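Exercise 3.2. Students should predict the tertiary structure of the chain below and write it as structure tokens, then compare their answer with the key that follows.

Predict this chain's 3D structure.
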Amino acid sequence: MSARPRRIGVPTSGGGQGAADAPLPPRFAYDLSTWREIAHLLANFPAAVVGFVYVVTTLAVGVSLSVTVIGVPLLVAGLFGTRVYGRFERARARSLLGVRIDEPSPMFRRAGTGFAGRTVAALKDPVGWRTALYAFMRLPWGIVTFSVTLVSLFVLWPVLPYLARGLTNADRAMVRGLLSPDEELEARIAELESDRGVVVDTAAADLRRIERDLHDGAQARLVALAMGLGLAKEKLTEDPQAAARMVDEAHGEVKLALQELRDLARGIHPAVLTDRGLDAALSSVAARCTVPVKVTVELAERPAEAIEGIAYFTVSELLQNISKHSRARAASVDVWRTADRLLIQVTDDGVGGACLDGGTGMAGLADRLGAVDGLFVLDSPAGGPTTVTAELPWRRRGEARAGGAVRGARGAGA
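Answer key:
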């Protein structure tokens, strides 16, 4: 199987782009579409006046009063109003010019928490500012198109269809250029929303696993231990030897319960990872693998704690897969840093044939890495060897993108 990157939750987004963006050819005809274009051009002037007056008034007042308490809220309200004007202009272009443009995401969809976060998100809203620029530019253009169309209705009647088509093609370009949503940004929002769902589902699954392990393991053992000690207490005076045997059995149960609790704590977050970092933690995981594993960690400093934990559990699950499925004789784990990315490569000389939907948890790993802007590449041809390369952001930043560093992964074959 050839290596291929698995990008999580990056949907395509349509904005009326593509072949439909090409300017419509002029033609000499007074059909319904021509009359719609004429109506659009005649409506440009009043629509432009409304938009220009609104933008200049509200934004000028908001900016001038921004040093006061009410200035910033007024500016936010003004930007919200420009979005309403943009929605009206998109609807007008859709009905009269046949321009199909998706509506952008709501202003506060990307907002942070609290009043301050929502205010900052609104002030940085690219849709509101591009719509304000559109409204500002439309006044001189609206005057020109209204005047030319009105004169042509009485003077230049034979060439009016050509003029209408040319002017409305400029309108179409303006609407697409300034009122279309940012496709990359919209795709990024959709990706983050999908990733958030993955994180929530993963956290819920982990909580259920911990609850099940506690209930079926340490809790049940401790209950049995309490009952055994209770019986030993009753027999302490009448049968000291039996009580001693029961206490001895309880001592063994305590040791097993402690071991189960240690294993459970290691599954949540191992102490060795917190205290000594990835090198020691991965060496500890490798020592428990049924296949000899060579671990090489080349890191001058430690990554963010959350990224470090994801890297640890990724390698842990991959080594478990090697123990269960690979029939390998040797494996290796390499960890290093490239620019602002943490690279992990796990290889084995087993039978190969692993795939993302093969029931070995590979798809879950890919989803978890994708939720933090990571990348997961699997190369496992039939007969082996198998190479898994994982890429994570060095620091957890909202702007971190799954980049091309994985292409430089040693031996990944990506």
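Discussion points: The chain has a mean pLDDT of 77. Residues 93 and 99 are 6 Å apart (CA to CA).
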